[in-house]
Amino acid sequence: MLVQQAGASPIASPKPQHVFVINLENKGYDETWGPDSKAPYLSKTLRSQGVLLSQYYGTGHNSLDNYLSQISGQAPNAATQADCQTFTPFVQTGTVAPQQAVGQGCVYPSGVKTLADQLTATGHSWKGYMEDMGTPCRHPQLGAVDDTQKAKVGDQYATRHNPFMYFHSIIDQADSCAQHVVDLSALTTDLKSTSTTPALSYLTPNLCDDGHDAPCVDGRPGGLVSADAWLKQWVPVITSSPAFKKDGMLVITFDESDGPQEDASACCGEGPAPNAALPGITGLGGGRTGALVLSPFTKPGTWSSTPYNHYSLLAGIEDQFGLPYLGYAGQKGLNHFGTDVFNAGV
Q1: Where exactly are the structural domains of the chain?
Q2: Which end of the chain, C or N, has fewer beta carbons within 10 A?
Q3: Cα distance between residue 297 and residue 83, in whole Å
Q4: Cβ-based neighbours of 195, under 8 Å, separated by 6 or more
Q5: Residues 290, 56 contacting (CB under 8 angstroms)
Q6: Are the C-beta atoms of 201 and 125 separated by less than 8 Å?
Q7: What is the rounded CA–CA span in Å between residue 80 and residue 77?
Q8: Which pLDDT score, from 0 to 100, does residue 261 have?
């Protein structure tokens, strides 16, 4: 039975201390979660195991600015809205509230911090797991054209779906970056024990497995069909791990809805940002995508209609680890994950 809980309330105790985030690509709420979904494992099997956030929204269009929102609270600019076809530096001319770097470009100066920086500074571990990345901390040379914008057979990694690469605070520390941003193949070994499982595990499938391409360069169907198959392979690896069973939280969401021409709607008081009057290019947001949360602290088969977006996700993770809010995660009135999400004891 589905039980709707509207309205976020203070975080329930205990708090998840091992957070997993999986981002899929470019699907609106009805396509993913509706009765005709081509992802039955996600929309039925997994949905029955956790809480569905039915009013979860992307924060912009196209892809990259949404990923950046999730780990930094920075709003879109013209370059990130265009997915940074060239790996240009972000030229900062100032800072405005809430902690927004004013300027244009792709790779933010070292003074612009991320969730990864926060976790490192407070002694918490983190890793980004990127399918097909191969070489750890892989990104274009500064100023170079990004040659991962289109998938290749045997290499469907996309830099623009790996937000850690867009911050000098991360990529300038080459050894640390290589230890923290790794190929997805490392996940299985890391999950064998609680002690080797990062506090934050951020997973990005390749351009076929995240649903972005359809069909895929390797002949697979792509879209929700391939994304569903990937989830069926990897989600049990996560949910059967000792860390997840102890105090885990898995969030499965999408970067944006189907595109600005179809859905640039927003929630949560999102408005014009300092570097882009319309974060969604034709509207204020990235459209309604929905998100699913699985955790020992969630009640199976439930759902929440509380409005959330990627800034809410960042704030929710920061809440778990007692961190201050970055950027728009600190926006006044923004909903954080509360007892509507951590509802097992409600």
Answers
A1: 4-330
A2: N
A3: 36
A4: none
A5: yes
A6: no
A7: 5
A8: 72
Is residue 258 within 8 Å of residue 286, measured between CB atoms?
no
DSSP tag of 108: B
pLDDT at 14: 59
Burial of 328 (0-12, 13-18, 19+ CB in 10 A): buried
CATH 3.40.720.10 fits 4-330, yes or no: yes
How far apart CA 61 and CA 254 sit, in angstroms, is 12
Q: Which residues contact 306 (CB under 8 A, 6 or more apart)?
A: 5, 6, 7, 8, 53, 55, 335, 338, 340
CA nearest 20: which of 260, 271, 202?
202
Check residue 262 and give its pLDDT: 78
**pLDDT at 6 (0 to 100):** 44
Amino acid (one-letter) located at 138: R
Amino acid at 247: D
Side by side, which strands form the sheet with 51-53?
A: 4-5, 302-304, 51-53, 291-294, 248-254, 18-24, 200-204, 126-130, 181-183
Could you tell me which of 308, 253, 295, 256 has the C-alpha nearest to residue 5? Answer: 308
| pLDDT (tens digit per residue) in 159-182 | 999 999 999 999 999 999 999 999
Those residues of the chain that have pLDDT short of 50 are: 1-13
And the tokens for 268?
Answer: 């949560």
The per-residue DSSP string of 261-327 comes to: TT-----TT---BTTBS-TTSSSSS--B--EEEE-TTS-TTEEE---EEHHHHHHHHHHHTTPPPPG
Torsion 75-256-183-238 (CA) sign: positive
